[in-house]
Each structure stands twice: as C-alpha cells, then as structure tokens.
Amino acid sequence: MNLMNTGDLALALQTPWLMYASLAAAAQPLALSIVNMRRYRPAPALAEIAGATRGARVAVCVPARNECENIEACVRSILASTDVDVRAYVYDDESTDGTGEIVARLAAEDPRVVIVPRRALPAGWNGKQHACFRMAEHGLANDPKLDWFLFTDADVRVEPDAVARALGFALRSGSALVSTVPCELTGSIGEMTLVPLIHFVLMSYLPFGRMRATLDPAASAACGQFILVSRAAYRASGGADGYGHAGFKASMHDGVKFPRAVRKAGLRTDLYDGTESVSCRMYRGFAQTWRGFAKNAYEGLGSFALLAFITVYHALGQLLPWIVVALAAATGAWERGAWIASAAIACALVQRTLLAARFKQSFLNVPLHPISIVMLSAVQWRSLWLDKTGRRGWKGRIAGTRPA
Question: What is the C-alpha separation between 389 and 370, in angstroms, rounded?
Fold first, then answer.
C-alpha cells in the first residue's frame, strides 16, 4: 500500500461517527471500572470481625496434581491462619512428581492436614472438579463440625488473616458463597500480556450493583483460585446431577459455574477485594500462560454470539484508536477523528493505570494494553477451537475424559 492509499485509509477511519462509537466503547469499561472499584471493597479487618469467626471450622481444599513446587508453601500458609479453625484438605490427584510424599510429611507433622483418599477419575469428570468434590464429600461425611469449604489452588498463598476475613465478609454480607481475585503475580512479559486482564474483564463488564441486587445467575462471578462456600450451600447447589461440583463436573471454569449453581439454589453470592491477603502466581512464561487461558477462556464466555460480540467490541474500543492514531501520525492526515481516537486511547490507558495501582500489578501492563487485547481475542478463539474439536486439556488430561 503506497503512502497516498495509506493516507486515504487514515482519513476514512477517522469518520466522526465511527470514532465516537470507538470512544464510547473505550469509555464504558473505564466508567464501570471506576464504579466497580468503589464497590469492590476489602473484607473486614480482624478487629472489625471481633472474634465472630473463631468458632467456625473451615476446610481449605487444595486439589494437587504434580504440584511439588507449590504444595508445601500453600499448605503451610493455610496452617498459619488465625482467628478461624482451619483444616488443610489435600487431594493428591495421581501426581508423579513427589507431591504425595510432601503432603504425607506435612500430615505427619500436623494433624490438621487431611489427606483425602484418592479414587480413579470417573468418565465425564474434569480432574479439578472431581478432586474438589471428593474433598467436600469427605468433609461432609467425616466432620460434623465443619461449617465452610474454601476451594483454592496449590499456587495460591494466603496471609494469616485471609481465611478469617473472607469468612467475616461472608457473614457480614449474608452470602453463602464469596470469592476474590488474588493479587496476580507476574514474572515475565508473556504473563503480563494476559494475566492482568482477569481484573480488566471483571471490572469492565460485571455491574457489581446488579450482582448484589439480584440472584440472577448471569449476574454472578467468582475466581476459581479462591471460593468460600458454606456447608449448607454446597449441599443445596448442583441441581439434578448431584450437589456441589457434581453439578458442573465436566467444566473447566468453576469461577462461572459455581456461583451460578449457588444462585440457582436461591442463595446469595458476592465478591470482595482480597489483594492484600491472597496472592497467586498462576503461570510461568508465555507458553504456560497461553495454554492455561486457552483451556477455559471460551467456556467463561459461554456462547459463540458473546465471543463474536466481545471481539468486535474490543476491536472497536481498544484497538481501532491505536490504528487510527498510528496512521494519522505516519501520513500527516490528522483530523478531528484522530483527536477522538486519542481520547479513546487515553480512556484505556487511564483504566489500566487505575487497575495496576489498585491491584498491585506491574505498570508495564499499561503500555502493553493493545497487545494484551489482541492476545485476549486470540486465546478466546483458540479456546473455542479446542472446545469444538474436543481438545481442551490441562496437565495431561482432555476435558471430561479419563486420563490417558
């Protein structure tokens, strides 16, 4: 394309109605994020709870498949919990890397570590959902004093006050299930392109006011890295296929399915900001990050129509302004549309800066924003392809099948 054609394209893209639509699509996520961040409050401090959680017993359930690098630090952080009676349930899911031996040693040191007996993965179950179900089933059958289950991952670390504060938030809000997105740690540019978008998507598109004003399952959300649910709610949720995780046994996205199941049972769910008390480094490097998001990104959206819409919406509000400004700068064809596009870019950068500051993200995420949006769309479409071809998998397993 020669310079003249490029200039014509630059002018064509600067059509005012298109640029105003682009600005609106960039301003909406910023505006809702500002509102949501005011509503996404931290859980009450221990002093505010005034000992209300000390009599409660919580089973912190950790599914562990080849987690030798994480499991000890995770379990020890759970055992250090204060102001609540914790049990660290661990399900060694056919690990081959020594995870089982580490857990056995921890159990010998502290009777609060409970090794849940392993069973073969049934056909039609996702490995994580089966592990979580087995831990809950064990607790329900063997510990009548158990009041709550906290489902977490081996790469999550909790501060000593984290479990009690989460429980305090649940009791204060009257919620049967509460969740938080941990402080998501990233150690490489590859991780930064996708992991911080968890907060971007949550703050941009879930109206917290509606979430709290209704029991509509579609208005709910959770993060599978940290889900606290009451014993009664676990038994009540699930539907025709059985309680708890049995109701979404083939899913790879408990963050979507779990709160919806609880709401369908007529119970409240909520979210709080646990950045100060819960942390997680999900993946190491770009390749692992890509595979991790590809396994369930499409399932999190739930439909082709929504995937198509969000792809176009992001292209309009988060990518097109950058293209317009770049073309205008390169050709000198700078008119009103380019100034509107600049305003749309400013909205995106302000939003990412606010999110980075609030959720302790690297500020390198901010200039990476257009690349991140491209990667988000790419991984969502890749996830769709994996889903439709029956190839979604994680840690050597294809979704909903027995291990090979």
Answer: 29
Nearest in space to 162 (alpha carbons), one of 314, 10, 285, 272:
272
Helix ranges restricted to H, 189-335? 189-192, 197-205, 208-213, 231-236, 254-264, 285-294, 297-301, 304-314, 320-331
* Assessment of whether the complete model's pTM goes beyond 0.85: yes
Residue 205: inside a domain: yes
- Compute φ and ψ for 97, nearest 5 degrees: -115, 15
Pairing label, strands 85-92, 57-64: parallel
Question: How many domains is the chain built from?
Answer: 2
Q: Are residues 168 and 129 in the same domain?
A: yes
Range of the domain at 106: 46-285
| pLDDT tens figures, 199-219 | 999 999 999 999 999 999 999
Q: What is the DSSP letter of 178?
A: E
Give the C-alpha separation, 347 to 29, whole Å: 9
Q: Assess whether 376 and 331 both reside in one domain.
A: yes
Say yes or no: 115 and 246 in one domain.
yes
Domain assignment of residue 66, yes or no? yes
